[in-house]
Amino acid sequence: MVAAVLTLLWRDVPGVTELGRLLEKEGFLWCQPTKVSQQALSQRFLTFPAILFEGIFHEILPKLKARWSARQHRPLPESVQFTLSKFEKIWCADGSTLEALFRKLKSLEEVKPGSLAGKMGVVLDLVTRLPVEIWFQENPSASDIRFEENLLDLVSPQTLLLLDRGFYHFQFWQKLIEGGIHFITRIKINAAIEYQQVFTDSYTLRDRLVKIGSGTKKTPIVILRLIEVRIGKVWRSYLTSVLEPEILPPYVVIDLYQKRWRIEDAFNTVKRLLGLSYLWTGSINGIKLQIWATWLFYAVLVDLGDAVAEELSLPLDRISLEMIYRGLYYFHGASCRGEASDPVKYFADHDNQKCLGIVKRQRKPNQRLIVAPFPEKQRGYDQFFFQFPPKPPLTTCLQA
């Protein structure tokens, strides 16, 4: 069943009938050709316990993390390297609503058109890019705060969480801080704050200690750092529970939160690329089966991408997981012809990586991250986001 479900994903098999033909004529992955009736396959997809796939997911994650730890030649982003010297883990947490159920299946004939399949909560390791945990809620309208208790049970001290505004909940923040867990999030518009201390106040950056909350049971008072950066004419604001700039400098906070988008990239990959936006069945067991199988496939894809990054001595951010996924078709053909046996070597080959688009193009040159706790004291702090062209000599201006 694991081979069958993963084959549905990576070969984009349109249905159980075609999967049965594939199994009978060719076999797939580690399964030899076997004849199985369509009815038997369909019934198996409806009744196979999703908890078994969940067990495989949790069993393989430590092995993939160990493989990641053994790799030493692909560099990590500067902000991540700096933060790992202060914290043990950097995790992103977010929720995502599953798409509407397709009513072509007989089991969905009575379902109201446009009904959503539920909501999943995901924790992603920003360092390894591997999923840490996945939760499922049958109610698609459930708020992200429904996953707060799960998150509190999962995280341990010395963890830094990157949270979106779906977790904008003062009681939750207070519990995290009391447990030795820190976070970075975005502040809501028109939030009532009281300034306590100023660390930095310049034209492009403001870093201040603030008190937020009304003091009620629902909104207790929390002391946080408010970091604001000027991008053009717009100020972007971030909140963090790390109160000392020496531990987490302001530009490190900003850069880390920008990397929170990695979890959105993960949602995009599992939904659009791996097909989680198309649900096979309307049963809760079937939906969970597809969720666990898709994230299992995603974890293996990240591991393969990281291995290619290691082979090329490039950051994982430079490797396109989508093109590696699409390149599996070409590797399979080369393997059948006896021209390739190692997917990592195949994708790292200069001709293949260029033809398949494995390495992303750099849109702009890398800029060195400012890690000073008080950047106004360091010359050039305003170059973190911008590279202004040098001014022409005065003689050139006069001639013009």
What does it look like?
The protein has 400 residues and is α+β, with helices and mostly antiparallel strands. The chain has a domain at 77-277: Transposase Inhibitor Protein From Tn5, Chain A, domain 1. 40% of the residues lie in helices and 17% in strands. It has 14 helices and 9 strands. It has helices at 2-10, 16-25, 38-47, 50-70, 78-84, 148-154, 170-178, 250-258, 261-273, 284-312, 321-336, 343-348, 350-356, 394-399, and strands spanning 89-97, 119-125, 131-137, 159-163, 182-186, 193-201, 205-212, 222-231, 234-240. A 9-stranded mixed β-sheet has the order 3-2-1-4-5-9-8-7-6, sandwiched between helices. A hairpin with a 5-residue loop joins strand 2 (119-125) and strand 3. The protein starts with a helix and ends with a helix.
- Tell me the CATH topology of the domain at 77-277: Transposase Inhibitor Protein From Tn5, Chain A, domain 1
Q: Which quaternary structure do these chains form? A: single chain
User: What is the CATH superfamily label of the domain at 77-277?
Assistant: Transposase Inhibitor Protein From Tn5, Chain A, domain 1
Q: Strand order within the widest sheet?
A: 3-2-1-4-5-9-8-7-6
Indicate the radius of gyration in whole angstroms. Answer: 24 Å
Whole-number mean pLDDT: 86
How far apart are the first and last residues' alpha carbons, in Å?
73 Å
The major beta sheet can be summarized as:
9 strands, mixed
CATH hierarchy: architecture of the domain at 77-277: Alpha-Beta Complex
Based on secondary structure, the structural category is: alpha+beta
Q: Could you name the CATH class of the domain at 77-277?
A: Alpha Beta
Portion in beta strands: 15-25%
Number of strands: 9
Q: How many DSSP H or I helices?
A: 14
Extract low-pLDDT stretches: 102-109, 379-400
Along the chain, the helix and strand elements come as HHHHHEEEHEHEEEEEHHHHHHH
| Helix content range | 25-40%
Shape: globular
